[in-house]
């Protein structure tokens, strides 16, 4: 049975920079089979694009509320976008 492929762009707010949030996000995305990227933004937030199986992306979105061990997530903004299939891996952008 084929599952729907989806894409979510998220912005995570709180204590999410300087706490290995990007590395942990990449680790979790690879574990879930998610493609896309994660990066720090100048305003202190973290932005990510997750693309993949709908169940896996929803698992990733739930994980974003927990984050890395030393992070303190206050808000996760989710924007659903059309799935493009453009990614072949999950990267940390600098």
Average pLDDT metric: 96
Biggest β-sheet: count, sense, barrel?
5 strands, mixed
Percentage of residues in strands: 35-45%
Q: Any low-confidence stretches, pLDDT <50, length ≥5?
A: none
Question: What is the radius of gyration?
Answer: 12 Å
Number of domains: 1
- CATH class group: Alpha Beta
How many β-strand stretches?
5
Compute the separation of the termini in Å.
Answer: 37 Å
CATH architecture: 2-Layer Sandwich
Strand order of the largest sheet: 4-1-3-2-5
Question: Tally the helices: what do you get?
Answer: 2
Secondary-structure element order, N to C: EHEEHEE
According to CATH, what is the topology?
Answer: Alpha-Beta Plaits
Shape: globular
Highlighted features:
alpha+beta; Alpha-Beta Plaits; 5 strands; 5-stranded mixed beta sheet; 94 residues
Detailed description of the structure:
The longest helix has 13 residues, at 54-66. A hairpin with a 5-residue loop joins strand 2 and strand 3. Helix 1 (21-32) packs antiparallel against helix 2 (54-66). The N and C termini lie far apart (37 Å). Helix content is 27%, strand content 41%. The chain is an alpha+beta fold.
Summarize the structure.
This protein has helices spanning 21-32, 54-66; strands spanning 5-15, 35-40, 46-53, 72-81, 90-93. The protein is α+β, with helices and mostly antiparallel strands and 94 residues long.
Sequence-ordered SSE layout with sheet pairings:
Blueprint: E1 5-15, H1 21-32, E2 35-40, E3 46-53, H2 54-66, E4 72-81, E5 90-93
Parallel strand pairs: 2-5
Antiparallel strand pairs: 1-3, 1-4, 2-3
Helix pairs in contact: 1-2
């Amino acid at each position: 049975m084929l599952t729907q492929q989806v894409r979510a762009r998220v912005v995570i707010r709180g204590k999410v920079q300087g706490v290995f949030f990007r590395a942990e996000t990449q680790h979790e995305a690879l574990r879930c089979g998610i493609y896309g990227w994660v990066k720090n933004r100048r305003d202190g937030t973290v932005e990510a694009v997750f693309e993949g199986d709908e169940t896996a992306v929803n698992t990733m979105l739930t994980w974003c509320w927990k984050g890395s061990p030393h992070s303190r997530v206050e808000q996760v903004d989710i924007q659903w976008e059309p799935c493009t299939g453009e990614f072949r891996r999950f990267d940390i952008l600098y």
